[in-house]
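Changelog-adjacent note: as of this version, every example in the card shows the full chain rather than a window. The one below runs 431 residues end to end.
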Amino acid sequence: MFLTAQGGLLGPIAWVFGKLFNLIYNLLANDAGIANLGVCIIIFTIICKLIIFPLTFKQQKSSKINMIIQPEIAKIQKKYKDKKDQESMLKQQKEIQEVYNKYGTSMTNGCLTMFIQLPIVYALYRVIQNVPAYVDKVKVMYTPLAEGVLKAKGSGIEISKFFTEFTDNNKITSASYALKQLTDLVSNGAEVGINNIIDVVSKFDISNLHLLSDTLNMNANANIDTIEKVHSFILGINISEAPGYRLSWALIIPFTSALFQYLSMKVINVNQSQTDAAAGSMMKSMQLVIPIASFITCITFPAYIGIYWSISALISMLTQLIVNFYYDHVDLNVLLEKQKEKAAEKLEKRGGKKSFMQRMMEASEEQQEQLAKQQAIHQNSASSLRNYVPSEESKKVAEQKQNKQYKSGSIGAKANIMLNYDNRKKEESEV
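Full-length structure tokens:
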């Protein structure tokens, strides 16, 4: 295992962004440059946001198109407003889908693009969260500390036990995930190396790194000073430390994150509230919930997380404003005509094949027709039974069965008793 570099399906994506972050740091950390992780995170976030901008723009464009065609959707909804039967609801859905198909969009276009972005965003977050795993020069800064721990404790079991006690005694929660990985590694009988120890110590803030050095009687202060320098941000904020619930300049970061999250949600909510009242109401709630959650997270996690969230939210807000400005100054009729042409071209390229949503709608209609037929057959059968008049011969057979003598206690005798009882009840009710 090479540090906590992201593995699995997201591994290649994180690897690419990790190389980008490493390049940015090396360019800034030259002889006349600025070796500062806070500045690196800002530049890295901006570049990554520009890389995924086409996906973001597509999502925002789809939302805007859906807002523009909303009057056509509203007419269909009004047409079926008082019709709640299954057939009418299916017809409504079909007509709405035809409107979306006409303009080459759908109800889920924006959501689909957003889901495509999620793995990318998560990979970016993992790079920010595990800088030593991707930036060689930062890894080198932690290496003497890791070597000191390995030399002092030797075995993996002792290292795991030491870190568990050290983090518990000093109430260090930021390294809990990395420590769990190390503990699992030891439990599986694997060997603990330098990289695994860097996983844990890189999650300590500066004061805990000094404490670790003093506890093990290590001469690592020079390296710790270098680590502190690259983590030092504006106004003396150390981004390796959580701002916490105390008065300091570091509180600027969670407040900034919450503010930009609020403004970003507000800009998005302008579009959503015009498209769908129910969705707009939900977005208004999220407009408050997300900034509050952002503030709490950024105040309890290392400040570099807050920097990433702040810049990310700021760029999202700016891109949404750009999209809004563009569509507010474009001829909507021309735009819709272009959308129709694109939709027709796409349909032609597919060779007239229907979209997945169209096939789903048709399958639903077929199921509804089959259900209606089965219900009609059932109703006809029930009506025939109610109107059935038995013939004289049928009546004689029934009377013979009713008067037939069965052996006492047999199933036939019991069934005959129940039959006679039902017949008497029926005669009494008719009287």
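Structural remarks: The mean pLDDT is 77.
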